Amino acid sequence: MHSDAKSKGGSPDGNMKGWLYKWTNYLKGYQKRWFVLENGLLSYYRNQAEAAHSCRGSINVVGAFIDVADSCTFVISCDSQTFHLRASNEVEKQKWVLCLEVAKSNAIQLMEEESDEELGSTQDEEIDYQGSIKQLTGKLDDMNTCNDLIERHFGSLQRALSELEKNPEHDTAVRSKIISERATLFKITSNAMINACHDFLELGQTQGRKWQKILQHERDKRLHLEETIETLAKQHNKLEKACREATTLEGIKTEVGDDGDAASEDDENEFYDAVDEPAFPTVVEIPGPRAHRRTPSGTSGLSVSSNEGLGVGDMPSSDEDMQETRREAMVAVVESSNASETQINHHVSKRIMTGPVRRDKVPEKPNISLDLWSIIKNCIGKELSRIPMPVNVNEPLSMLQRVAEDYEYSDILDSAADCTDTCEELAYVAAFSISCYGNTNNRTTKPFNPLLGESYECDRWDELGWRYFAEQVSHHPPAAALHCEGRDWTCWADFTINSKFRGKYLQVFPNGTTHLTFKRTGSHYTYQKAVVTVHNIIVGKLWVDLSGETEIYNHNTKESCRLVFKPSTYFTRDTPRKVTGVVVDASGAARYIVSGTWDRKVEIAKVLKERIDKAGKGKPVYETGPPQLVWQKNQPLQNSEKMYNMSGLAVTLNEFEPGVSPTDSRFRPDQRLMENGHWNEANQEKLRLEEKQRTKRRKKEVEAAETGSGPETYRPNWFERRLDPLTNTVAYSFKDEYWQCKQRKDWERCPDIF
What we know:
The chain is built from 10 helices and 30 strands.
């Protein structure tokens, strides 16, 4: 590899250019590419001539993980994109890794300085206001002093004139001199008073004009917000009117073209949920199998390709990659030749509830108002993790605890572990992945963002047959890793959450892969989370919706299930919050149908026969057996709306337990204060913890700069970074040391974060 002269040894500002070898596919292997690291962005080109106009792909190093594979190879990954790179020798590799670390550190520091500047601008306005008040107060004090002197000298002059009137012929010259002196002093003090009044008036006019501009600016922003609210209210009224009119009409169908996307095709047919209407035949819409193209590792998901061949680790964000062509098949009619009554699944494992008695409620949420506009006006378009939010918008749980709620319905996995058919097992796994959203519909509050190094354990082995552990493993970008072990299954994942506030709604994008294995069958599944959208942020009642597709893939048997979460809309007669899916085997044949709603219940039905409906645009029609109810949401707790709409498991997650790690979320003081209703103190404690974390990071940066060792990469306490052979990305793997350390009460490695 040849680097230009400027990049030799690495640039101190983290910029570098040079040749590297990038992995493309198993046919062509590593290909030589020209890489440019500039302004925190790593881009690559076919050659140097392309650098001015044709970028083949890029990664933002701010949220990237950099991992060294061997003496000449290293991996850089960010969200769903990964570059596998190789240098010509170890020295060149070290130069690139060092520059990447420096560029990442500089970019993170720049982002934080921008946040500090935004905070500083508000502080500067406050300081300017205080300075103006101080100046006006000083001028007013000068006027008061002049007034006292005027009164004193006027009294002296008045007394001298009175004495002259009483004795007009006694020492006339002396008294005239005294009167002249008194009059001169009175004149001087009067002039001083006039000057002080003039200065006060001038300063008041200057500050008045400045405050008038500020007031006008705030008035304009308020008017803009009022116009926005008025527009939203009108749109809301129109939608309500359209909804009422739609309910009075029958037989409305939305016609779409044959080339529409999957979401549009889903809207063209009537649908009566198979769960609610168990009698068959029933009209349903379920995504059919689609053509799969996989990387050599067998990674599931949208396959990608490039003009260099099938890429390993190359993602569709690169310009030389292409999206695969997909074949969409919809189930038009599901018919059953068996009894019409829905069969309830009796395959669910019976549990013996043992262990400690846990609490069944948390302190009720206090009725404290929130000045929403002061937050919203400065937040539009920003990353949610970069916004200093008060605890008023939170719930007394951290993100690590919130994720533990995914295993509230782990009995579905216990049932899946007892299945002898891997396709039936996959159908249960699909139902479990849907049940993870069961508590999402009415949970509109935000969990606390974990601090770096914060952890959480949830040991329910005696009661529910599993134990869970999670740790915040990265701060930029915020990333968490988790590991949950059941008696017959194991689940792990590491993920980051990107969120954007759009003014009218908030979107949450989970990035990361969930792994699930079963001991008896050896099945290894992977899948991703759906996109979550919170509506009516500004006006109206908050509500949550899911959208998008997710695929569950068995890497051992090549079986898969593609789930479609259909977004709710006023203009369709579909069941709200509907989710549908089909389980296909390695040959692409449909084996099971999955149907239901992600906030209520899910059924599965075995496919008995498949045919093509010629009258339905060639869509497959599946004849199924009777459906089985595999998941149904638990009844909410009494007065749950006063307890942040928490579920039965959620109210126990922040309960104190002996013997847990000192970094456990249960010990977080701001979260505990909020749970107990002390919100003002919780806000102050939250600011203290965040400032403590920033101070600690700055101290490490200063120490690294003094020693010349370069920026230090944070190493988690209970997880380690490894290359995932299934996804070809750097992931976090559980060390299996936490539970042993808990038995020994050995917490020496735990940092002081609270």
